């Protein structure tokens, strides 16, 4: 029997985290923070002390999946931390922007704790087997499948089945599927949204601001654009690393992205905004160069396009609320048809959805009746041998 503790991301967006136990071994999948929250709500709601965690697995280096890592270390976690090489490379920037500064200074991740694996590897934690696969969300991003005595739980983390850039490996059949429900019942495909974004930017080719996460959506935006653009100078090396990640990208896309990156001009904070589209990170305006560039663009009436999640109270959200910024969501999570297909391919198992608010989850249930919406962050359940959740 597998015991599951929902530690963040269920009935809410952010601080994504679950813990899984077979009675002898306990593992934790992801340790995110919740942008816009404060105090304990910023971090995962740990069901048990960190001393009980035997292994920690990180799916990718976005803040809502890795931002609480230093908090766990401060609380005394000293076990192995499993992640891909790409996640390891992006981890310092993510923690510098979203971890508590004092915790990062005093409790940085120790190199001796980090265990590198490749997407597709099968890892061992006690009697549990943890299978991994590329998620299509970012270079080095993965989903996790936890197996024990014939039972299997699949935690999708963040994934993009229809990515124009990143490869995604199929999910295995399972007893419980924890889907990335970020977009709820949205049916608009990534290709359609990419065309809409390309049209918006083309109409403002002489200058517009595109805030974006450093990894993942940055390459999706680059793939969608077919005109000269600029990037914040500090993004160049991380973008080049993502483009060069072995096996992470769909066939044929790397060379096109490499050429676009070579042609992009560098922009640095403090300089005049360029006469072409400008990509800066992060996508919410709460950290990174976007924290400087967004107020600057707002003051100068420079067009702004937001393409991702807008946490309440964030600079990006406030701009959108007063009509100062346009918003066209570029799918970097599954659309409703993609989630329905994932569920079918996994054998129609029991389903939970993470990374969305309750009202959005309930709308999604109208299309996927087996979706269980009664579970929230802070709750726990068991998966019986029959596959029943109780």
TrEMBL record:
<keyword id="KW-0614">Plasmid</keyword>
<dbReference type="GO" id="GO:0016787">
    <property type="term" value="F:hydrolase activity"/>
</dbReference>
<dbReference type="InterPro" id="IPR036866">
    <property type="entry name" value="RibonucZ/Hydroxyglut_hydro"/>
</dbReference>
<dbReference type="InterPro" id="IPR050698">
    <property type="entry name" value="MBL"/>
</dbReference>
<feature type="domain" description="Metallo-beta-lactamase">
    <location>
        <begin position="14"/>
        <end position="204"/>
    </location>
</feature>
<dbReference type="InterPro" id="IPR001279">
    <property type="entry name" value="Metallo-B-lactamas"/>
</dbReference>
<protein>
    <submittedName>
        <fullName>Ribonuclease</fullName>
        <ecNumber>3.1.-.-</ecNumber>
    </submittedName>
</protein>
<keyword id="KW-0378">Hydrolase</keyword>
<dbReference type="Pfam" id="PF00753">
    <property type="entry name" value="Lactamase_B"/>
</dbReference>
């Amino acid at each position: 029997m597998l015991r599951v503790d929902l530690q963040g991301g269920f009935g809410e967006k952010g601080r994504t985290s679950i813990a899984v136990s077979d009675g002898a071994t306990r593992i934790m999948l992801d340790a995110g923070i919740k942008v816009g929250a404060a105090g304990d709500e910023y971090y995962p709601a740990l069901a048990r002390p960190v001393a009980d965690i035997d292994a920690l697995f990180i799916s990718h280096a976005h803040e809502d999946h890795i931002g609480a890592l230093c908090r766990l270390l401060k609380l005394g976690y000293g076990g192995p931390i499993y992640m891909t090489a790409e996640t390891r490379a992006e981890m310092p920037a993510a923690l510098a922007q979203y971890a508590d500064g004092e915790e990062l200074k005093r409790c940085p991740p120790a190199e001796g704790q980090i265990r590198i694996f490749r997407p597709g590897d099968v890892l061992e934690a006690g009697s549990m087997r943890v299978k991994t696969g590329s998620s299509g969300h970012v270079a080095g991003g993965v989903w996790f499948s936890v197996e024990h005595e014939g039972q299997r739980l699949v935690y999708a983390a963040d994934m993009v089945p229809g990515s124009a850039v990143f490869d995604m490996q199929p999910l295995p059949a399972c007893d419980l599927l924890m889907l990335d429900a970020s977009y709820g019942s949205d049916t608009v495909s990534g290709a359609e949204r990419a065309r809409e974004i390309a049209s918006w930017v083309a109409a403002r080719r002489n200058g517009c601001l595109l805030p974006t996460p450093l990894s993942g959506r940055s390459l999706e935006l680059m793939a969608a654009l077919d005109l000269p653009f600029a990037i914040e100078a500090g993004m160049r090396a991380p973008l080049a690393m993502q483009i060069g990640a072995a096996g992470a990208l769909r066939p044929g896309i790397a060379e096109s992205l490499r050429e676009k990156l070579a042609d992009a001009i560098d922009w640095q904070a403090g300089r005049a905004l360029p006469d072409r589209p400008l990509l800066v990170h992060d996508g919410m305006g709460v950290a990174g160069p976007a924290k400087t560039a967004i107020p600057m663009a707002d003051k100068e009436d420079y067009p702004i396009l937001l393409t991702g999640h807008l946490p309440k109270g964030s600079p990006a959200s406030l701009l959108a609320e007063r009509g100062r910024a346009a918003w066209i969501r570029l799918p970097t999570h599954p659309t409703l048809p993609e989630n329905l297909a994932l569920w079918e391919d996994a054998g129609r198992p029991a389903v939970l959805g993470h990374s969305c608010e309750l009202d959005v989850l309930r709308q999604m249930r109208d299309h996927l009746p087996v979706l269980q919406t009664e579970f929230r962050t802070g709750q726990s359940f068991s998966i019986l041998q029959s596959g029943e959740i109780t």
